[in-house]
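2024-03-11 09:14:02 DEBUG pipeline.ingest accepted 1 chain
2024-03-11 09:14:02 DEBUG pipeline.ingest length=137
2024-03-11 09:14:03 DEBUG pipeline.predict start
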Amino acid sequence: MRKVESVTRRDSLVLNVLITGFTKLHKLSRSKGITITQFIQVFSEAIEGVFDSITKDYFSTPLSNPGPEQERRKQELLRKARQRQISYEEGQELQRLLEEQKRQHEARGDIGGAILLGLLILFLIGVLAALFGSREN
């Protein structure tokens, strides 16, 4: 029962972020076109509003078996991203870790988990864009 409550709470947070983001985008679209930068910024702000709840639930639910060192590193990098103290290379590392876990969720059919990880990736992209602008590889 506890797992069902945790998954339900996680999925409600995901829906909250999506609804908040799309509501803001709809308001922006009334007055002008929406750029990709605005899209990322809107969803980054929506994620920031529920970040503590998302990451608490995200890390309290065993979503996969990435190993303790990989999970610790992911938590550390997410903390640095939230505090805007992440390097560009660390951001790329975090994005790889999140994308790998997102693929695992998709393979298991866990759509809510996959969307949550997608939102965390979008948040990371927003942070990196704010910190480093458009940077070529």
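2024-03-11 09:14:41 DEBUG pipeline.report The mean pLDDT is 80.
2024-03-11 09:14:41 DEBUG pipeline.predict end
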